[in-house]
């Protein structure tokens, strides 16, 4: 159980993923049921003016979700999580997820933590996903 | 479909569809993301946790069948996923029997730099067999009738 007390300004533990691969996009298409060919068929993506296949925005959101559930641990609960999809992710991109605590409240034995979260191609680089999440972790 | 066609469908919910949460589907979804969390695949470990069963990742409800909004024909090109936001009420666990539905809850037209855009806001609802709300999600999809990239 986490004994950590969060403060506004604290960073979450960042998560850097292995490079996105084309196989991963095929796997995510199958697992999610999103078979839009812009994620898997090179010719189709080029014809659509994308210059090649792009990752599902929801895959990148899944990376940020992984960072959050790693941070929260088994005793905590994710209460809300939302993102804006800002820029495209392509095979070969190395995505790092990060977050900063904005607000901490205590409620009924929990600390309720609201944070800004995002994903970017490298630290300091443009954010591909930007959002907020609220989670709770038992105080005890 | 054009703006007026989408507006006509605003607030019309799909008939809820029964979705059974399968452990293989959870594992495949977590594998695709590359998330090694044992709660998604190690049944013994999950049994010892407060959940008692394998847990679904936070964006797993993406895999559900939400049914059909009568008359809604989504274009296959010119769509961009703009935003996605979840509100979690209860965890989703392997073996759960859930009922999923969705509606087009907002429609707006905007003039963007790259041409005309129609913003479609879909609200997704997941309930359990007792009728309790398990999860809600709001997805904003940007549609460019004159074409454009998708995500």
Structural notes for this entry:
The complex is a heterodimer of chains A (140) and B (151). By secondary structure, chain A is an alpha+beta fold. Chain A has a domain at 15-20 and 55-138: Thiol Ester Dehydrase, Chain A (Roll). In chain A, 24% of the residues lie in helices and 33% in strands. A 5-stranded antiparallel sheet of chain A has the order 1-3-4-5-2, with helices on one face. In chain A, β4 (110-120) and β5 form a beta hairpin. Chain A is elongated. Chain A starts with 14 loop residues before the first strand and ends with a strand. The model of chain A has no long low-confidence stretch (mean pLDDT 94). Chain B is α+β, with helices and mostly antiparallel strands and 151 residues long. In chain B, strands 1-3-4-5-2 form a 5-stranded antiparallel sheet. The radius of gyration of chain B is 18 Å and the shape is elongated. In chain B, 30% of the residues are buried. Chain A binds chain B through residues 17-18, 24, 27-28, 30-34, 36, 38, 48-50, 54, 56-59, 61-63, 65-66, 68-70, 74-75, 77-85, 88, 131, and chain B through 25, 28-29, 31-35, 37, 39, 49-50, 57-59, 62-63, 76-77, 80-88, 91, 138, 148-151. β2 (77-85) of chain A pairs antiparallel with β2 (79-88) of chain B, so a sheet runs across the interface.
């Amino acid at each position: 159980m986490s004994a950590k007390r969060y403060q506004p300004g604290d960073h979450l533990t960042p998560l850097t993923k292995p490079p996105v691969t084309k196989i991963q996009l095929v796997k995510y298409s199958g697992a999610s049921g999103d078979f839009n060919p812009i994620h898997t068929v090179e010719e189709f993506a080029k014809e659509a003016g994308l210059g090649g296949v792009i990752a599902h925005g929801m895959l990148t959101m899944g990376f940020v979700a992984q960072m959050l559930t790693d941070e929260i641990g088994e005793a905590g609960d994710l209460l809300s999580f939302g993102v804006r999809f800002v820029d495209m992710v392509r095979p070969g991109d190395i995505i790092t997820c990060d977050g900063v605590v904005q607000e901490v409240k205590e409620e009924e034995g929990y600390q309720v933590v609201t944070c800004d979260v995002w994903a970017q191609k490298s630290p300091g680089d443009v954010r591909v996903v930007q959002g907020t999440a609220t989670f709770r972790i038992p105080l005890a | 479909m054009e703006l007026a066609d989408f507006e006509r469908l605003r607030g019309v919910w799909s008939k809820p569809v029964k979705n059974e949460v399968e452990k293989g589907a959870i594992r495949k979804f977590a594998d695709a993301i590359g998330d090694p969390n044992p709660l998604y695949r190690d049944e013994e470990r999950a049994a010892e946790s407060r959940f008692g069963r394998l847990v679904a990742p936070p964006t797993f409800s993406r895999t559900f069948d939400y049914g059909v909004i009568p008359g809604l024909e989504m274009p296959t090109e010119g769509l961009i996923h703009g935003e996605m936001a979840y509100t979690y009420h209860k965890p989703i666990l392997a073996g759960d029997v859930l009922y999923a539905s969705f509606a087009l809850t907002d429609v707006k037209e905007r003039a963007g730099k790259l041409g005309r855009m129609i913003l479609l806001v879909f609200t997704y609802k997941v309930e359990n067999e007792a009728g309790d709300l398990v999860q809600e999600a709001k997805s904003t999809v940007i549609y460019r009738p004159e074409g454009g990239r998708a995500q």
